[in-house]
Write a structure and sequence with these properties.
It comes from Ophiostoma piceae (strain UAMH 11346) (Sap stain fungus). It is found in: Mitochondrion. Its cofactor is thiamine diphosphate. InterPro entries: PDHB_mito-type, THDP-binding, Transketo_C/PFOR_II, Transketolase-like_Pyr-bd, Transketolase_C. Its main location: mitochondrion. The radius of gyration is 21 Å and the shape is globular. It starts with 15 loop residues before the first strand and ends with a helix. With 421 residues, the chain is of the alpha/beta class. The relative contact order is 0.15. Helices cover 31% and strands 17% of the residues. It has 2 domains: 175 residues, 3-Layer(aba) Sandwich (Rossmann fold), CATH 3.40.50.920; 197 residues, Rossmann fold (3-Layer(aba) Sandwich). Helix 4 runs parallel beside helix 5 and helix 10 packs across helix 11.
């Protein structure tokens, strides 16, 4: 078996052992490697056998209670396997992610009178990031509602409205501020369906920017993907492209369960091609289905949100500079996580690297590695690895901030060394 790449170790490497339980496989997590004091790259051990399926009676009972979305046909021209880059070049237009989100909101407000939007500055100011631009003029103040600066208050109002049968879209100026409303999100929205014995659904969408931006400091730069992904009862999506943004937001609003839509501030103004199929008002992407953005045969790179673009750029450089064909998977959905697409890719490439900008400990990458060890261990030719953000509150200083998160160059460098090892 090839050895792992030689990387500089921190002076205090950590090790973690997972305790055995009735439903958790036993395996060791080796040292947390920090290349150039920059990113944490954790290596999963191959020492333990695969465990049996993890489902317990309680979790299976909850899944049976969780309300399922009504099956909806995909828009014409959209591949069920989600393996294309875009549906077709015919009729393609350029959309920013902001425009795609705005269009999704407008279409859902138009088609369903139960849908309304509330949050700070969503109405008269057109949204802090102009995602709700023009919606107040079009739909009126009863459906596009400005709130006081009190996340706990307006989130509680939104959850109550959802429990009463409406379909609110609750916008947070940033998910960092949603910490003020964590009780309403976790204890009210996420748990009510289960605690009511499947009687009381909560159709609510929580949306807003997530993760670091540029020079906004540690308290405004956290990535909550793993936080919300760990909560039973919540669905969590993280769009990258304009098509992702529109299709996933529309799916979230239509889903009878509470859905957290983790957008990225740095992507709002980025332009992507929008296929003719995606421009239609019936375009909806399935929650829980990943997309293969780039096919490859040498290594599987699994990523999400803004890191998708960085990973795709790194994959092109890997091909140009090293002849490495990397397969890039855009998760789209954090929970449910599409492990089937990942396993099928690993069966082909036999190597896996997870890429995210979140913290290394207990992150999305950690979950991907754990599931890969459970369901694709026999197909791995080398230990699965992860590239993450640094184990540090995000610095305010520009240069230090840049050193705290994955870059295209780092993804390329680590992947090349991983395959040469």
């Amino acid at each position: 078996m090839p050895s792992t790449p030689s990387r500089p170790l921190s002076t205090h490497p950590s090790s973690r052992n997972l305790s055995p339980s009735s439903h958790t496989p036993v395996f060791d997590m080796s040292r947390c490697v920090r290349p150039a004091a920059r990113l944490a790259v954790a290596v999963a051990s191959r020492s333990a056998p695969l465990a049996a399926a993890r489902s317990t009676f309680a979790s299976s009972t909850f899944r049976s209670l969780q309300t399922s979305s009504a099956a909806r046909p995909l828009a014409a021209g959209w591949s069920a396997s989600q393996r294309r880059s875009y549906a077709s070049t015919a009729g393609t237009k350029e959309y920013t992610v902001r425009e795609a989100l705005n269009e999704a909101l407008a279409e859902e407000l138009e088609s369903n009178s139960k849908v309304f939007i509330l949050g700070e500055e969503v109405a008269q100011y057109n949204g802090a990031y102009k995602v709700t631009k023009g919606l107040l003029d079009r739909f009126g103040e009863k459906r596009v509602i400005d709130t006081p600066i009190t996340e706990s208050g307006f989130c509680g109002l939104a959850v109550g409205a959802a429990l009463s049968g409406l379909h609110p879209v609750c916008e947070f100026m940033t998910f960092n501020f949603a910490m003020q409303a964590i009780d309403q999100i976790i204890n009210s929205a996420a748990k009510t369906l289960y605690m009511s014995g499947g009687i009381q659904p909560c159709n609510i969408t929580f949306r807003g920017p997530n993760g670091f931006a540029a020079g906004v400091g540690a308290q405004h730069s956290q990535d909550y993907s793993a936080w919300y992904g760990s909560i039973p009862g919540l669905k969590v999506v993280a769009p990258w492209s304009a098509e992702d943004a529109k299709g996933l937001l529309k799916a979230a609003i239509r889903d009878p369960n509470p859905v957290v839509v983790l957008e990225n501030e740095l992507l709002y103004g980025q332009t992507f091609p929008m296929s003719e199929a995606a421009q239609k008002d019936d375009f909806v992407l399935p929650i829980g289905k990943a997309k293969i953005e780039r096919a490859g045969k040498d290594v599987t790179l699994v990523t999400l949100s803004r890191c998708v673009g960085q990973t795709l750029a790194a994959a092109e450089s890997l091909k140009k500079n090293f002849g490495i064909e990397a397969e890039v998977i855009n998760l789209r959905s954090v929970k449910p996580l599409d492990i089937d697409t990942i396993v099928q890719s690993v069966k082909k490439t036999h190597r896996l690297i997870a890429v995210e900008s979140g913290y290394p400990a207990f992150g999305v990458g950690a979950e991907i590695l754990a599931l890969t060890m459970e369901y694709a261990f026999d197909y791995l030719d080398a230990p699965a690895q992860r590239i993450t953000g640094s184990e540090v509150p995000t610095p305010y200083a520009e240069k230090l901030e840049e050193l705290s998160f994955p870059t295209e160059a780092l993804i390329e460098d680590f992947t090349a060394k991983f395959l040469r090892a």
